[in-house]
């Protein structure tokens, strides 16, 4: 009798927990403070000031919902595969309403400044390797402690085909750093518009998942800005902390590449910060307070740290990738996602990473007594770039999902 009771109690507990989880999720975001960031600090310089938690992407959402419900999505994805370069015509085989949307969505914002974009490229040319390390260990790993994002990724198709998803995300990080990112022969505009369409598809599909509360539509403008700050704002903060030099032209340019990206992803101009100062203010309000562990995020973090296992690159083992994560995101977040300290690499990073970067930048020209560390970091970066480039070598096509994760 006692066993049955215990089993029943466990079952009841499970149900109650499930209910609580769903309730917590409908609470959308853990930001307790009302939205107070002024649109005067945005690239638009003005706006109605609506809380971005109440705004999604109506233009894309209506079109994509209709496409998913009424059209042959396999055929549409086959057409989208042929649309690669920014200057290319939109494939004629797409339904007219989707073509019209793409023609509208691909237009660069009127405030695009090509001189600034050139500065952004200068920065990537000089610091590309360190920036891509930060995309992976600052932004990528941080996404696992942004509850709304971690849950959306986990319960969508991308959570199931995770390696594929990472390759597609890596493509965006690569495209934004190319010399012609937003020019006719580049690919970033196409990547952004496709991603905007994917996000609209996720808004349509996720509420149909039995694991998702129906009334909660994912990827609000607030969610988009939270994730945006996990990218450029977080990366610039780390580069500054590490003393990586950036001229004004480079730093303004890097910000601008991400402002244009945000616009093309469907973020309203009134939410996109006009300056690093405004970005930091907004990030403190929207990103910092929502960071928290979730069951889903812990699983995704584990998947991410195992991605390096597949190639024969000895320094990309889970413990070493974990050490970088702990070093960059700090002990609190590393503990949340159960990434332990690594006995060799953790102290090595704490003591020698900053001097290593200074030597690498030519800021210090005499290497302090750290030959071994210097070699290890060089070798790590070499293997990291090999891995990253191998992810990008296969043809990557960002396509509309037609279902959620299957369990
Ligand atoms: C898909 C980038 C914000 C959830 C994608 C893809 C990219 C991307 C490149 C395509 C990858 C693929 O097709 O698998 C970005 C960027 C963002 C952003 C640059 C902000 C600046 C968000 C936010 C959420 C989110 C805020 C959730 C709260 C997803 C999901 C998918 C996706 C669920 C689809 C995965 C799938 O089922 O295939 N995103 N994203 N994203 N994104 Fe985002």
TrEMBL record:
| Chain coiled-coil ranges | none
Which InterPro entries does this UniProt record tie to the protein? Lcp-like, MPAB/Lcp_cat_dom, TAT_signal
Domain ER-bound oxygenase mpaB/mpaB'/Rubber oxygenase catalytic, residue spans? 133-353
Q: Which superkingdom is the protein from?
A: Bacteria
Put simply, this protein is called Oxygenase MpaB family protein
